[in-house]
């Protein structure tokens, strides 16, 4: 038995003994996702599962152990993922700390910043939000205006962010601020601060889904210690871009669909429409659309596996996350269009208990932001064209 | 196992790219077509394939081959696709070897395949669209069988040394290895749009001995599945090569062609289309490698992964060749320019062993809808 086989056997046994049965159910809505944080409200089993995994560093399997990670090799991390998938185990903790800030801190943070923030992310103690977009800086992100004025050992931050996901539920923010007007990209710094700081306020934005996952966030003379700046002053754009690559990876994962148990799209279609005498979905046009979608979704799943393997081996093109983000989000939008078509009028219900409070319709509407947030599909296509295909700028 | 080529496989790719690109670039196909070559490929080239060891790529080492897998065969297929090189590699060195492996025929045919002395054709389809169903009959007769029926879209049949053919027997299906010179067998080759030659093969009571059976009588479905699994994955890999070749030509053209005083590749409308195409091809390439790895591992998920690979490459490469001609503009419509050859080859390969619709349907059935 190789070391990896042994690791697989041990992992399988440990997961079997530690993953609560509730955490082996497919993720059916946003509420089933564990985000952690000071004000987290946990479902049964959620906290035990998160804590058990965190005790082994497996909420962040490939981070170094001194920062709360599992210190696993790429091959071991893949085995862990496969074994979790095999029992339908939910992700113990999803957070912007894990998917976005963590990788940026690992690359650009000081030792003190890493030791201060990473273990709390790994244990789900602090929930982070991202202060990037502004009312006048969307696709043109580097045009941001939120100012950070030098006040000796700290900055005074003033301005407004928008589309700040879960700002009203987050404990800390990683934020892009302008420390110089001399240069557009070269005048941006990357800072971290507590959302309970004096002068921070948030206002949820009601979306077409009827939910408010995004906020407007206001900064009114917020005092931020300079020790909370990541990387050099005016070098924040490097950190921002690096982090965006990871954000795009995370969003691209949506193309894979939620959870691991079964296929809700196909099960839903069979439940609503039924099968004909030959065992085929009784709506042939919809069946064809779902089948082609299934081909694309499975091919993308292979692409996702390949991308992660290449990334871990340092073989991925640096702009490849843009391709993943583009394909993954367009697929996710398509998936939800098909879920709606398969559900017919049932899927249109907005409030009823039977519809789980309009879960399908609201999730469908939510996905429309996928190809906008984290850089629009058009921005991604532009990046692919210029950086991968090396087509000239206009 | 990571889902990318390992160092040895990457080295093989470089060797194959160099070899096929030098010995059989698109100009090689053009020359054969213009000469109305009656064989459909160059026998000299096929012998060179043997000298390189490619003909024995999936033949076990103890039978004189390289003992490699579908991933490595796919590496060679992709370069064949990129250069549109006509050869019997897919049918002979990949699919037939998969079918004959561990049967009594291996000892006879593997040395000839490895040496580049044999061409093997696959007689599977019976209608213009691939269905996977077998209607042709093989009736017991004396010590053997009599085969009656018609097979279509059989590449290389008119020059083959052996034809693998599936027929219905009493309690199932059986695959036979038939000598194309047998009495009652007639191959009628037709030139296709891509200049390849595929035959309608008529079996008019063709008598074969019992030892013509590949594997077990009535056990042909397993043999056919091995042949089709290998053939579909190989065709998918070739499609990736065709799509990638067309995309590279198109991207190069976008950087060179000027209109309105600038290279057309600087226009956002074309950049976005090119970037979308790149994305589709990347996804298709990953799907193919996944299917090849699962096949090599003997993993039962290989069957569905192969459907995904063949369907996805059909979709992506069809897009690639269409965008190729559109973005080339008028010159893309001329016979002088190579991009049209890519479109023709892509259409033939998309149809071969089941098109995207066939495999999407199969995937749906396999998943209970």
UniProtKB/TrEMBL annotation, chain B:
Keywords: FAD, Flavoprotein, Oxidoreductase. The keyword Oxidoreductase applies. Residues 131-204 form the Acyl-CoA oxidase/dehydrogenase middle domain. Residues 219-366 form the Acyl-CoA dehydrogenase/oxidase C-terminal domain. It comes from the Bacteria. Its cofactor is FAD. Transmembrane segments: none annotated. One of its GO terms (molecular function) is acyl-CoA dehydrogenase activity. Residues 6-116 form the Acyl-CoA dehydrogenase/oxidase N-terminal domain. The keyword Oxidoreductase applies. It holds the Pfam family Acyl-CoA_dh_M. CDD domains: ACAD. Belongs to the acyl-CoA dehydrogenase family. This is Acyl-CoA dehydrogenase. It comes from Sphingomonas spermidinifaciens. The lineage of its organism: Bacteria, Pseudomonadati, Pseudomonadota, Alphaproteobacteria, Sphingomonadales.
